[in-house]
Amino acid sequence: MKIIPTVAAALLLGLLVPAAAHEDHQFSAGEPGNPKKPARIVQVVMRDGDGKMWFIPDHINARKGEQVRFIIRNSGAIKHEFVLASVKDNNEHAEMMKKNPNMEHHDPNAKSVEPGKTAEMIWRFSKSGTLEFACLIPGHREAGMHGVVVVK
To answer: What is the pLDDT of residues 86-143, one digit of tens each?
Structure first.
């Protein structure tokens, strides 16, 4: 007997991610950068230990219109994420992650990084304001894994 899960059952089991979660190409933090254009390099290190988790640095300044190439290195012992968005969007996404903790990110504003690995993200800050980068894996943000980008 072959069992085929319904879409609702697959969502509950975390086998599918709701389409709306990743199809909206309006980003609160700006827009994906152009790899053919110059970019300032900002290195971000992910760390964990003694029940705490953090980013180094946890505060970044940027100019409106600036393009940044983030080099994101996980020097911790477990997988982490770098998700760049408004605090509101990250709060909403964090709630979704609690329901789907194995969700993989393939969005231009998010990178999942295994321990000892490095990822890159090119981002253009087309909007002014205060943004957040955070690890939205359940429990990580609460353990201190978040930072701010101030765009002027």
So the answer is: 999 999 999 998 988 777 777 899 999 999 999 999 999 999 999 999 999 999 999 9
Can you tell me the distance from the alpha carbon of 125 to that of 151, in angstroms, rounded to the nearest whole number?
Answer: 7
Which pair of structure tokens corresponds to residue 152? 């002027």
11 lies in a domain?
no
Q: Is residue 28 part of a domain?
A: no
User: For residue range 4-22, what is the model confidence (pLDDT) as tens digits?
Assistant: 343 333 334 444 443 334 4
Q: Give me the half-sphere count of Cα atoms (radius 13 Å) on the Cβ side of residue 7.
A: 3
Contact 93, 85 (CB under 8 A): yes
11 Cβ partners below 8 Å, 6+ apart?
Answer: 18
CATH of residue 57: 2.60.40.420
**Residue 121 belongs to domain spanning:** 33-151
Please indicate, yes or no, if residue 23 is contained in any of the structural domains: no
User: What total of structural domains would you count in the chain?
Assistant: 1
